Amino acid sequence: MTVRDFTQIFDSYSKFEEDLSTKKMEEVAAADMPSAADELELNRRIARYEKLIKRRPLLVNDVLLRQVFFFFWYIKIHLCSLLEPKQRQRVARAGEPFCWKTRTGTTARCLLHS
User: pTM score, two decimals?
Assistant: First the structure.
Protein backbone atom coordinates (compact mmCIF):
# COMPACT_ATOMS: atom_id res chain seq x y z
CA MET A 1 0.00 0.00 0.00
CA THR A 2 1.34 3.42 -0.89
CA VAL A 3 0.76 6.67 0.96
CA ARG A 4 -1.53 7.77 -1.83
CA ASP A 5 -3.67 4.63 -1.40
CA PHE A 6 -3.75 5.12 2.34
CA THR A 7 -4.72 8.77 2.00
CA GLN A 8 -7.64 7.96 -0.28
CA ILE A 9 -8.90 5.24 2.07
CA PHE A 10 -8.37 7.34 5.18
CA ASP A 11 -10.09 10.40 3.68
CA SER A 12 -13.08 8.31 2.63
CA TYR A 13 -13.37 6.69 6.04
CA SER A 14 -12.98 9.95 7.93
CA LYS A 15 -15.62 11.56 5.67
CA PHE A 16 -17.93 8.63 6.42
CA GLU A 17 -17.41 9.03 10.18
CA GLU A 18 -17.97 12.78 9.88
CA ASP A 19 -21.21 12.24 7.94
CA LEU A 20 -22.48 9.79 10.57
CA SER A 21 -21.69 12.29 13.33
CA THR A 22 -23.38 15.12 11.43
CA LYS A 23 -26.50 13.04 10.83
CA LYS A 24 -26.69 12.09 14.51
CA MET A 25 -26.24 15.74 15.53
CA GLU A 26 -29.12 16.73 13.28
CA GLU A 27 -31.31 13.98 14.77
CA VAL A 28 -30.51 15.08 18.32
CA ALA A 29 -31.08 18.75 17.44
CA ALA A 30 -34.42 17.98 15.76
CA ALA A 31 -35.74 16.00 18.72
CA ASP A 32 -37.75 17.93 21.31
CA MET A 33 -36.33 15.91 24.17
CA PRO A 34 -33.32 13.88 23.04
CA SER A 35 -32.77 10.75 25.09
CA ALA A 36 -29.64 10.16 27.11
CA ALA A 37 -28.85 7.20 24.84
CA ASP A 38 -28.91 9.45 21.75
CA GLU A 39 -26.61 11.97 23.39
CA LEU A 40 -24.27 9.21 24.53
CA GLU A 41 -24.14 7.75 21.02
CA LEU A 42 -23.41 11.22 19.59
CA ASN A 43 -20.58 11.73 22.08
CA ARG A 44 -19.13 8.32 21.17
CA ARG A 45 -19.25 9.09 17.46
CA ILE A 46 -17.54 12.44 17.94
CA ALA A 47 -14.89 10.86 20.18
CA ARG A 48 -14.27 8.12 17.58
CA TYR A 49 -13.87 10.73 14.84
CA GLU A 50 -11.48 12.85 16.92
CA LYS A 51 -9.39 9.78 17.80
CA LEU A 52 -9.21 8.83 14.13
CA ILE A 53 -8.02 12.29 13.12
CA LYS A 54 -5.41 12.38 15.89
CA ARG A 55 -4.00 9.00 14.81
CA ARG A 56 -3.55 10.00 11.16
CA PRO A 57 0.15 11.05 11.39
CA LEU A 58 1.06 7.79 13.13
CA LEU A 59 -0.89 5.70 10.61
CA VAL A 60 0.76 7.46 7.65
CA ASN A 61 4.12 6.86 9.26
CA ASP A 62 3.31 3.14 9.61
CA VAL A 63 2.62 2.99 5.86
CA LEU A 64 5.96 4.64 5.16
CA LEU A 65 7.77 2.26 7.51
CA ARG A 66 6.37 -0.71 5.63
CA GLN A 67 8.03 0.68 2.52
CA VAL A 68 11.39 0.42 4.34
CA PHE A 69 12.34 4.08 4.59
CA PHE A 70 14.58 4.16 7.66
CA PHE A 71 14.40 7.92 8.01
CA PHE A 72 10.75 7.55 8.98
CA TRP A 73 11.73 5.61 12.10
CA TYR A 74 13.04 8.90 13.48
CA ILE A 75 9.71 10.52 12.72
CA LYS A 76 7.96 7.58 14.40
CA ILE A 77 10.08 8.08 17.51
CA HIS A 78 9.01 11.71 17.64
CA LEU A 79 5.35 10.84 17.08
CA CYS A 80 5.50 8.16 19.76
CA SER A 81 6.90 10.60 22.26
CA LEU A 82 3.51 12.33 22.05
CA LEU A 83 1.63 9.12 22.95
CA GLU A 84 0.58 7.79 26.33
CA PRO A 85 3.19 5.58 28.09
CA LYS A 86 1.21 2.37 27.54
CA GLN A 87 0.86 3.09 23.82
CA ARG A 88 4.59 3.90 23.60
CA GLN A 89 5.47 0.48 25.02
CA ARG A 90 3.23 -1.25 22.48
CA VAL A 91 4.82 0.63 19.58
CA ALA A 92 8.32 -0.07 20.90
CA ARG A 93 7.61 -3.81 21.12
CA ALA A 94 6.28 -3.83 17.56
CA GLY A 95 9.55 -2.51 16.15
CA GLU A 96 12.01 -4.69 18.09
CA PRO A 97 12.48 -7.95 16.25
CA PHE A 98 14.21 -7.08 13.01
CA CYS A 99 17.12 -5.06 11.59
CA TRP A 100 17.33 -4.85 7.82
CA LYS A 101 21.03 -4.08 7.72
CA THR A 102 22.40 -6.85 9.92
CA ARG A 103 19.25 -9.00 9.83
CA THR A 104 19.56 -9.36 13.61
CA GLY A 105 19.10 -7.25 16.73
CA THR A 106 16.60 -4.55 17.47
CA THR A 107 15.35 -1.67 15.38
CA ALA A 108 17.12 0.80 17.67
CA ARG A 109 20.47 -0.86 16.98
CA CYS A 110 19.76 -0.84 13.28
CA LEU A 111 19.06 2.90 13.39
CA LEU A 112 22.26 3.60 15.30
CA HIS A 113 24.46 1.64 12.88
CA SER A 114 22.96 2.63 9.54
Answer: 0.55
